[in-house]
Amino acid sequence: xxxxxNIEKKTRKGYLQYIVPAIIIILTLIVFNPTMNNGFLLGWxxxxxxxxxxxxxxxxxxxxxxxxxxxxxxxAVTSIALNYASAQESxxxxxxxxxxxxxxxxxxxxxxxxHLTKKRLIAGIGALLFAMHPMxxxxxxxxxxxxxxxxxxxxxGGLLAYLKYTGNKNILYLGLTVFLALAALFTKSLAISFxxxxxxxxxxxxxxxxxxxxxxxxxxxxxxxxxGFITVDAAQTYGHITDLQYDYSLFxxxxxxxxxxxxxxxxxxxxxxxxxxxxxxxxxxxxxPPLYYLSxxxxxxxxxxxxxxxxxxxxxxxxxxxxxxxxxxxxxxxxSRIFVAADRxxxxxxxxxxxxxxxxxxxxxxxxxIRKAYMRYGLAVVLxxxxxxxxxxSHRQSxxxxxxxxxxxxxxxxxxxxxxx
Length: 421
Prior knowledge:
single chain; two-stranded antiparallel ribbon
């Protein structure tokens, strides 16, 4: 009888752990509900997809063999073609699919952080920040950003499969990791960072840098190199690449890269005045604005932190590495697309910073760090207020994507006030 009660108790406890992700999903549906009223962005990539004959006639062979809009992302295009087959030009179905994919990703982030850290508080906080952060609005509210949502699903699924493999060494899980990494690459070129993030996980898990560990990564690096060449060729074919050497010296390009890297950290903490367009800076007598040169101090500080605490703060360093590796492919140095940064580029990479933030919060709320209860409760209230700010900002930001006229009007306002520069 006692054994039966213990089993029932464990069962109830097991179900209770799903309350937090369930609440996060409900809040996500409320916050991003305005996206269901949004239409297509005429004159943007939405129009190109909807008028594409491969999409309209569901030509799978053409979708997988051709570039679309200077990109090779056949699985993302296929998902839009499926929407078109069922809903034609009714935007609601497309936006519902985007929101559904975001919810799937929220659950995957929760699972990833839970399996990685074994701490429910860190998993809950990280998933909540990912679900609500305003920098993710662009990926959710813009139909053409479907590739960001879908590739993240495959990417996170691959990381979870890899964690399973590191736990039991079952080669089938390594094969599943390769399959999901390949699916992510067929969805968006940003997935070329996958093998580097695997190395960050190895570091976090304390895996020995032996021959087997390196051999495991060879298929992933080979795939990333192949798809890297495909990505450059696709962009060049479409004329999507701006060769920065014609406009900026290598010296200035280095500082533009540093400033863009820091830009994402700033928007992580203060996601205000977000824009659909972040333009490259103007030169004054061949020089960038002073802030660009000063921005290099932040990456140098982070490098020092990584060096100084490499062995002692693996949770924090792993978060920094995750972010840095995931954002690296879109940082402007030798070439770039026409904009210096984009909110959607933070969708996957911010998971690393959410891991870092959640770990810090977990430590600060520990009784051994803050002994007085009223101080812990006070900090918890501040954090809840900040989450409320994120939710309100995302809710309002979602409405700016209702159509191209409203979005462009918002962009023009921001460009005149300065932050979009």
